[in-house]
Amino acid sequence: MNVVNNGSENINIGGSDYSQQSIYINRYLEKNNEIEYSEDLDLIKIGGVEGYKKRVEITAIISLVSAVVTIWQFLSGSGTFFPLILITTICVACYGTSSWFKYKSLKEHGFFESNGKIKLFVQEGEVCTVRKYGTCKICGGRVYIHNYPDSKTKRQFGKCVNNSDHLYTFDPTIDRGELIKLNYLDNF
């Protein structure tokens, strides 16, 4: 049981200052409420493989123009926007380089790998992202893994895209989880 203290500055309908709300979290232990997470194709990237080639071409032009403007501002001494344009040039050049490596890998191998995991995959001419998710037992929506809002812990949970109340635990060692049921009980 967790107790949430709302503080003295809250306006609570039906409550007063320093009202409390108790939240009870019950876990269903039934087998049919278990969820399995797995790496699978997720979203289709617009433009396919050739889209990455277009991104490289566009970013190359923008980088070149930004670089020329940066050099001109540096030499002319009117460096009002010099830091901004320099940072823009570097960022666009990095994005273009990243797109180039993705394009080459997708063209040659049919997938793009980063940190030992496949991130992009070509299927039937379309480029799809690869992401770990499960299927909600209540509504059939995709359950994506999220970090808890508390940055101190590295715990994760699964949240359904169709309904944020459909929550699941996540155990990364076995890629499984269980449905979590939230009951809200007010204490005034």
What features would you describe in this structure?
β10 and β11 form a beta hairpin. With 188 residues, the chain is of the alpha+beta class. It has helices spanning 48-76, 82-109, and strands spanning 2-5, 20-27, 34-36, 38-45, 111-114, 117-123, 126-135, 142-147, 156-160, 167-169, 176-187. Helices cover 30% and strands 37% of the residues. Strands 1, 2, 3, 4, 5, 6, 7, 8, 9, 10 and 11 form an eleven-stranded antiparallel β-sheet that branches. It contains two helices and eleven strands; from the N terminus they run ββββααβββββββ. α1 (48-76) packs antiparallel against α2 (82-109). It is elongated and about 70 Å long. The two termini are 16 Å apart.
How would you describe this structure in keywords?
188 residues, alpha+beta, 30% helix, 37% strand
Question: Would you kindly provide a brief summary of this structure?
Answer:
With 188 residues, this protein is an alpha+beta fold. The protein contains two helices and eleven strands.
Percent of residues in helical segments? 25-40%
Class from helix and strand fractions: alpha+beta
Could you tell me the strand content as a percent range?
Answer: 35-45%
Biggest pleated-sheet summary: 11 strands, antiparallel
Number of strands: 11
Radius of gyration: 25 Å
Helix/strand order: EEEEHHEEEEEEE
Shape label: elongated
Q: Overall pLDDT, averaged?
A: 77
As residue ranges, the low-confidence spans are: 9-13, 24-29
How widely separated are the two ends?
16 Å
Q: Give the count of helical stretches.
A: 2
